[in-house]
Amino acid sequence: MADPVLAARGMTKLFGSNEVLRNIDFEVIAGRNIALCGENGAGKSTLIKLMTGIYTPSAGHVLLDGEPVIFAGPKEAIAAGIAVVHQEFSTISALTVAENVFLEKEPRDRLGLVDRRRLRRDCADLLQQLGIDLDPDTPLERLSVAEAQMVEIAKALRSRARVLILDEPTAVLSHREIDHLFRILRDLRNQGMGLVYVSHRLDEIFEVCTDICVLKDGDVTSAGPIEDYDHDRVVAAMVGRRLGELFPPKSGPATGAAPVLSLRDLKVEGSAASVDLDLRPGEIVGLSGLVGSGRTELALAIFGAARGAGTVALSGANYRKRTPGRSLAGGLAMLTEDRKANGLFPDASVAWNFAASTLGKGARALALSPRDEEERSRSVVERFSVVVDHVGQPISALSGGNQQKVLIGRLLENAPKILLLDEPTRGVDVATKAEIYRTLRRLARDGVAILVISSELIEVVGLCDRVHVMRDGAFVAELLGDAITEDGIMAVAAAATGGGMRPSHD
Amino acid sequence: MTDFARAVRFQTVHLAIIGLIAAIFMVGVFASDRFVTVLNIANVQDQLVALALVALAQTVVILSGGIDLSFAGLLGLLSVLFATFAGSDPATFAAAYVGILVLGTAIGAITGGIVAFSGIHPLIVTLATSTIMAGAALLHTKQPSGSVPIFFEDIVYARFFDFLPWGTLFVIAAYLLVGFVLWRTRFGIRVYAIGDDERAATISGVPVRLTKVLIYALSGFIVALAAIYLVGRFGVGDPRAGIGFDLRSITPVIVGGTLLAGGRGGVLGTFLAVILLALLANVLNFLNVSNFYLWIVEGVIIVVAVSLFVVRARS
Ligand SMILES: Nc1ncnc2c1ncn2[C@@H]1O[C@H](COP(=O)(O)OP(=O)(O)OP(=O)(O)O)[C@@H](O)[C@H]1O
Ligand SMILES: [Mg+2]
Q1: For residue B274, which of A44, A132, A241, B152 sits 20 to 30 Å off, Cα-Cα?
Q2: What gap in Å lies between CA B76 and CA A362, rounded to an integer?
Q3: CA of B178: how far to CAs of A111, A114, B166, B201, B218, in Å?
Q4: A279 lies in which domain range?
């Protein structure tokens, strides 16, 4: 095999006394695409940060074209031709698309001033080349998460990089955008770029990668060309055991009970169409559709975080002036798409983050009871196998998937009767996904009504009793039982929309 | 959208302030026939030069997510030093002028260095440096003292067509220049990037620490200009010249629509807000309203302005 462009040798990283990576060897080869797999907290993002100058290794070193290099910071790695799409967004919402894409690489004129005209043109050219339909002058804050992610990808590809590393780039993208991204990745690979691809969606890995490397407990447990692997072998290397069924058995439609949530003519702001929906206790209903079909807005309007016209009724009682606070008090809880907006306090400890949302319970004596919070957060940490040193650790030190687990755990703490979940398993590893699905099914069996928005079709198909497919703010189809298939959903969701990728507001 | 509109990030907040300025102006016209006189109009401008400069410095710092509370001490110290060394002939004056600018910039750079490398909140760092400099200024002289050459006072008091002081032109030039720097230089884009999301800026390769040093250095430089102006206006160096300017420099920034959290806003809003506040003080004066009411009104304006921004940000 060819010599690696970029390699890690004997890479070891300790955070305090916590040894996250132990003596790892990892290679990126031109014209190949290597998948980096592992459970949440396995150290994938850490390895990437070690190779790109964001973290300093505790031991080991990085080789560029076979020569040892030390990247003192991300800037040097970028200059060496290593482009990264990080798991945490690196786009800046106060800047425009063009300013983001060319941040620190702005075209400058002879006087060293930023050439605004060229900046805009270069950005438009790049976006066109990648088939991304966005205006370079739009401020990032006006874009949806998916659009921001495409900007992130364009940013990584703004100059001819030799290595492109993508850390869970598809977590916020929908089917169509993912296909588009994969076409781009294949082109780049054929042009001789070396790629690293991190994802918890194994089917993606088989679709786009040529090699695989699995991390577990700080070691590489398995590595080789992708042809030698199948789904089960990857999971076994990641989890250390064979996994049973990913999805628990469905319980069939709940037709008998009276609906706990009813929507009549609910129309979200900016949409022409309206929807009707009845959600009954015990059922898990999926909302499927392309990014931009209005799923998120609909959920936000129900929850009271966005405006909507029409009626929402909780257990038959009209629920007028909707606010998140009143929704929570009424047993209606929502997990939103964006972790930051979810009220995650990044610098506070895991336990404190619990306290912040479950005040109602812990604050009986007007004061928080730290022991209480700690105990409850510890039980969630155990249930969802959150990889964390101790619950006093700041939540920002947790891996992306583990933050998501904490959020879900926290949401369930308040024993809601209706759950609205927007992309609940984003960035979560397979084993924990299974745990989350089991938990949701158990909740449903206990009488909770659950509405799930997901761009991951397998998830919708495997989990939901009933699926509404949305397009342009309207329900265009309802699928039941065996009719819920990936092809079935895609056929309705994508009907009558053109080709190419057009990420739009979701 | 034209390039210009993008450059100044023209927004409704600016129109709102212009509307308020017009309204207050009308009140002034009715309040007194001495309001629209060349003398009074020049007077309003004289009042706002120093505030406009320190608010400009503060705008850049706040845009980057920081805050600079060192103006009180810095203005006092630079003011007494300048008056001490300016002498009476052009040569000593020029040397003192350059010296003060260099000193102001250097002090700013050191402050920025401490902020960037220590991780201590800029509020605390700048409060500390302000206190140190205020002490140093008072050790140097307890009373207003020193002098500047007559020709400098003449320049400060010179007016074009009777109503346009040099100071105003100077302020406009300074705002245009800083606005240009924010729009057309990589440094300017970095300021917004750091102010909005320091972590994202870091992983994007923005040299966060260097930029912070430069930001506080720029702030020190502009404040040195304000100190020199104040000495020219009062003819002496005063260790207490800066008192109040620390907090007063923040008001126009906030009223002008720049977010205290950083990343959003710009110099145009600050400029308009400075005019608004200076005019307000002037008109209340004509209405024979006590200065204390001015404080109350200013406070109300801050609260109203900020709540409007919050409401707008939510929708
Ligand atoms: N800055 C930090 N300080 C302390 N511990 C950290 C820090 N960053 C990561 N860790 C720890 O290192 C481990 C590996 O984290 P990392 O983010 O690399 O996981 P990951 O494999 O990318 O997981 P995910 O799939 O959830 O993104 C985790 O246990 C995490 O808590
Ligand atoms: Mg990760």
Answers
A1: B152
A2: 52
A3: 17, 14, 18, 21, 10
A4: 246-331+416-495
Kindly provide the b/e burial profile for residues A317-340, where b requires at least 16 CB atoms within 10 angstroms of the residue's own CB: eebeebebeebbebbbbbbbbebe
Q: Quick one: pLDDT at residue A501? A: 39
Using CA atoms, how far apart are residues B245 and B248, in angstroms rounded to an integer?
5
Whether residues A270 and A153 fall in one domain: no
- Evaluate whether the domain defined by B3-27+37-314 bears CATH number 2.60.40: no
Residue of A88, A93, A104 with shortest CB distance to B206: A104
The ipTM estimated for the assembled molecules is: 0.90
User: Where do the domains of chain B lie?
Assistant: 3-27+37-314
Q: What is the pLDDT of residue A506?
A: 42
Question: pLDDT by residue (tens digit) across B163-213?
Answer: 899 999 999 999 999 999 999 999 999 999 999 999 899 988 899 999 999
Same domain, A51 and A189: yes
- Percent of chain B whose predicted confidence (pLDDT) is above 70: 95
B186 touches chain A (CB under 8 A): yes
Half-sphere exposure (Cβ direction) of A165: Cα atoms closer than 13 Å: 26
Amino acid B247 reads L
CB contact under 8 A, B206 and A103: yes
DSSP A341: G
The answer to whether residues A431 and A283 belong to one domain is yes
Min Cα distance B63 → chain A (Å) is 11
Q: Is A45 in the pocket of ligand 1 (CB under 6 A)?
A: yes
* Residue whose entry in the numeric block shows the structure tokens 């992708």: A226
Q: Which of A103, A105, A149 to mutate to test the interface with B (most CBs of B within 10 A)?
A: A103
Ion ligand 2 — residues with CB < 5 Å? A 44-45, 87, 399-400
For residue A404, the ligand 1 atom closest to its alpha carbon is 26
Better pLDDT: B25 or B306: B25
- Tally of CB atoms within 10 A around A284: 26
**Which range (B8-22, B117-131, B219-233) has the least confidence?**
B8-22
With a cut of 80, say whether residue A228 has pLDDT above it.
yes
**Is the backbone of residue A103 left (phi > 0), alpha (psi -120 to 50) or beta?**
beta
A298 shares a domain with A184: no
Q: Which two tokens stand for residue A428?
A: 């979560």
B-chain residues near A99 (CB < 8 A) = 189
- Reply yes or no on whether the pLDDT at B251 is more than 60: yes
Q: Output the pLDDT for position A348.
A: 79
In a domain, A391, yes or no: no
Q: Which of A206, A239, A272 is the last residue of a domain?
A: A239
**A361 pLDDT tier (thresholds 50, 70, 90):** very low
Q: Token pair for residue B235?
A: 């003819």
Residue type at B306 in one-letter notation: V
Residue A451 pairs in a beta bridge with A285, A420
CATH code, domain carrying A159: 3.40.50.300
Q: What's the CA gap between A304 and A295, in Å, rounded?
A: 14
Of B122-136, B249-263, B288-302, the poorest mean pLDDT is in B288-302
What count of Cα atoms within 13 Å lies in the side-chain half-sphere of residue B17?
Answer: 27
DSSP class of residue B18 equals: H
What are the DSSP calls for B99-143, one per residue?
HHHHHHHHHHHHHHHHHHHH---HHHHHHHHHHHHHHHHHHH-SS
CA angle A455, A230, A219 (to 5 degrees): 90
Same structural domain for residues A430 and A477?
yes
Q: Which residues are within 8 A (CB) of A196 and not within 5 positions of it... i.e. 6 or more apart?
A: A28, A33, A34, A36, A48, A163, A164, A165, A166
Across the interface, whether the CB atoms of B185 and A114 are under 8 A apart is answered yes
Record: contact B185-A116, CB cut-off 8 A: no
Residue A431 parent element (H or E)? helix A430-445
